[in-house]
Amino acid sequence: MSGPAHELAIDRTFDAPLDAVWRAVVDHLPEWWCPRPWTSEIVALDWKSGGRFSITMHGPNGETHPGDGVLLEVVPGERFVFCNMLDADWNPQDAQPVGIVGMFEFADAGVGRTKFRSSARHWSEADRKAHADMGFEQGWGICADQLEEVARRLAATADA
């Protein structure tokens, strides 16, 4: 395992420029946040450090999985970091379904490409394993693919 202890991560290089990827992140989050056929509903999303981050995922059979937390850091065009163990007032709250610090990082990879990394840091090895067993690699990988798809569409539209 590379990176910090208790971390799961997805690394990709997107075939889309950084500005299109960042626009996809902040302006089109419901299109990529959870694997289709699931959908995402933004309850509250304040794109600033300390802002509320609340999204409900809806499954095809009526399932709902709310996720509420706080954006610990937002650096436009570079990264956003959130935690689901704190509410918008920085009060501790129960994990949904496992406590994480989620990080999404972006960097210009040249020639219209973007280096992408998403990671989930966990408080314990047991939490990391539970998240892995829930399908982290497949689920977050699908979301990364969907994010690239949205960014490529935005880049193509901007170039048209």
Automatic annotation (TrEMBL):
InterPro entries: ASHA1/2-like_C, START-like_dom_sf
Activator of Hsp90 ATPase homologue 1/2-like C-terminal domain: residues covered: 15-150
Secretion signal span: none
Pfam families: AHSA1
Entry superkingdom: Bacteria
Family that this chain belongs to: Belongs to the AHA1 family.
Identification of the protein by name: ATPase
Lineage per the UniProt record: Bacteria, Pseudomonadati, Pseudomonadota, Alphaproteobacteria, Sphingomonadales
